[in-house]
Amino acid sequence: MQAFDYLNYPYPSQRMTAVANRGMVATSQPLASQAGLEMLKKGGNAIDAAIATAAALTVVEPTSNGIGGDAFALVWTKGKLHGLNSSGPAPEKISIDKVKERGYDSMPKFGWLPVTVPGVPAAWAALSERFGRLPLTEVLQPAIDYAADGYPISPVLGKFWRSAYNKFKQVLTDEEFKHWFETFAPSGRPPEIGEVWKSPGHADTLRSIAKTNAESFYRGELADKIAAFSQSGQGFLAKSDLEGYKPEWVHPISVPYRGYDVWEIPPNGQGLIALMALNTLTGYTFDEKETVDTYHKQLEAMKLAFTDGKQFITEKEHMTHQVEDLLSEAYAEQRRALIGEAALTPEPGNPPKGGTVYLATADQEGNMVSFIQSNYMGFGSGLVVPGTGIALQNRGHDFSLDPAHENALAGGKRTYHTIIPGFLTKDGRAVGPFGVMGGYMQPQGHLQVIMNTVDFHLNPQAALDAPRWQWIEGKKIIVEPHFPTHIAEGLVRKGHQIQVELEKGAFGRGQAIWRDPETGTLYGGTESRTDGSIAAF
């Protein structure tokens, strides 16, 4: 791994890079980080720490994820990278025609129609069974304690909670949504910053998942409760959908980038977009970060990759273009040739035929985990299974109701998925896990963190703190308030429509842990845009 200047902080930061050698957990909530660290100190490995942290996050950051969401993981162990896709499909009995019969021309955001099979509990169980060292009952105990005993609301969490409550109060007026308010606004309001919130039903659910290795969620008492709630609301999710679900172990995909390999989960995830953009950018040399030309090429490559991704990415079996074709050098050259001096309006190419939480963990033995889970759009569908704390995701919102679209809704099909874990290796050895959560910001954040690291030699904290941009559509780009003004003005002259966005949440929240292969020392960066924390020893 190249040498970074760990004292060089070119951007405003609240933190220095964390350094340790026995174990590290990086996530968006201090209490969750401590849950992971507790497992490491008990003799667990990075996988146990990741599961404990993820479970705790469903309690201490319910504004971004929950038991009823999906998850993906990249696990480095014994010199090999493993991928887990634990995203759930649409219910077998749903269809485009049935959705349209209910008066919709596009998939709604809330209610039963966008609910897909949750994959989070299955991810925890699969990771624990294959790679974990401690029993799941012990690994989930910190999360159970937080849910049963309560914890004080942190500042950024409180802000997002109140924002969600204010929105839901206006739009979730049907009887089926009352359980969300009973669970997350039990006093008729969202909890205040510093106020203790607890969820006994959530604790009971976690105990059941822990004791049965998630069997109760898919084939037992919790499955019965989910199915009964769905039936009462005329939902399509049935117990048979839960019974038939299994997470999928997958081969991660990668591209070489300036002596490193950048890894993502294959479709249905959107990690392919980050790889396509990086593949396009390998054709250029970037000597300086803060130049108009550097940002212009980054933006153009991302616009092209994202437009392709939205057109072509869905469940792998339904894709007309193979991953290998989209990542081919020939296609990268074809897309690179479109990048000129002026901002373009992107269109899909013609390849050759052939809210969310992110966490990173590492242990003393060399195991490292890149893990992400989400309910989508904050709290998800607005539906909470009565008495359980299970907030159901609305991932099906991304399906198209156009039968000709590659991501067209179909029963039993998995949709285009926004949540993506990343991993970096060099010469066959792990550098480490990284990720930036936040909807369509995620592949854009991956590209920026990797280029900050590889091209511009920033340490992990500085790589995360650097001003971010996000392509929205057409030529519209949003940037953070501390984005360099002279760069923004130069991009405007090239035809980009630059808008300063004051909301920090628009630019995602990231974590990264890099390991020095020679010394084993761990270097961690966490997100200064939220309540991020690194626990290490």
Automatic annotation (TrEMBL):
Region Disordered, annotated ranges: 518-537
Stored InterPro entries: GGT-like_enzyme, GGT_ssub_C, Ntn_hydrolases_N
Presence of keyword Hydrolase: yes
One Pfam family matching this protein: G_glu_transpept
Domain of life of the native organism: Bacteria
Entry's Gene Ontology molecular function annotations: hydrolase activity
Keywords: Hydrolase
The protein, known as: Gamma-glutamyltranspeptidase / glutathione hydrolase
